[in-house]
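User: I'll paste a sequence; please echo it back and then give the predicted structure.

Assistant: Echoing your sequence first, then the prediction.
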Amino acid sequence: MKLILSHPTGNEFVRAAATGFLKKDILLNFNTTFASFQGSFIDQLGSIGALSEIHRRRFDSNLKPLTNLWPWREVIRVVASRAGLKLLVKHEIGQFCVDAVYRHLDRKVAMMVNSLSENSASAVYAYEDGAIATFRAAKKHGLECVYDLPIGYWRSARELLKNERENKPEWASTILSFDDSEEKLKQKDEELRLADRIIVASQFTANTLNLYPGPLASIDIIPYAFPEVKTFKEYRKFKNPLKLLFVGGLSQRKGIAYLFEAVEALEPFVELTIVGQKSVQNCSALNVALSKHKWIPSLPHEKVLRLMREHDVLVFPSLFEGFGLVITEAMSQGTPVITTDRTAGPEFIDHGKNGWIIEAGSSSAIKGVIEEILYNPCIIENFGRAATETARKRTWECYGLELAETLLR
């Protein structure tokens, strides 16, 4: 097998996939918008504070000879977003919005597929919203289409979240999954229809595909991984308040209203820190809630990990999550996690041993676990150490190699 891999922005699981494919000698080329390679001049620029975004796009230097870049549209998107040029990055229609970046790379990869010499590739591997043109070209040339779905299926999202808009109307504006156009939703379905294999990272994501209105290709569940365990957490001698942390987008899709309700009922015995960007600026319920707690809009990744080590528990009460990398990140730092059954939590958390799995959409469920910890704070260290041991067993290298081996079967 030789495959063409594409992803517009790159992230931890894409880096691991590319490296795993390279090590198994099945990567023909990797296509993205912007990438830096350790030791290069571009990578050195990432040491400048204002250019730190570059290090988030760092890939294994061995990938460089096989990497094709189309950077300018993505560079303009990032600059326009930071400069507040909202019209340029407006959802779906902005000239440099995320959707435009995805579509542009997808078209470039499709052109490449159409120009390849016969038998130079046997498969294409692409991600949701960036696969339609690539898959159509691949079908013309008899290539296998592998589709990676990082988050749950859109019909299931609407089914599970529609009640939230009715039950908590004051938070409805933060749920953005209803903003996609019919054209975009049809494209998502077409990508799934064309896929010969589907890769997901959790059983929850696989289950959401039950609402797809038609037959689907086989689905492989390959969970993501943990950051390398580099440091040992020093557990503090417990005294009130319990230090809780939330990391993620500030949307009711993440269940944050229930977190705020639970914490409010337990004050002054708990202290909540929130790290994440607002999904919208004008939600008064969100703004009021944030004013009562420590809110940090953004932090570099290493500082997020440090903050995780400094807190007792991460609470991630998401209502719809394909995985939830903050779960594995916190566990790798020795911080136990409270999360729901609609995340990848069940893939790694043994409830009552190295973390807690709760019912989604319930402030009382969150409150109950926090009360359990307050009554018996020694479990923080016990669960945290167990979480660390879980993290040691699955590195990103393991994920990349398992993904490659799955494709070779």
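The longest helix spans residues 98-115. The two ends are 10 Å apart (CA to CA).
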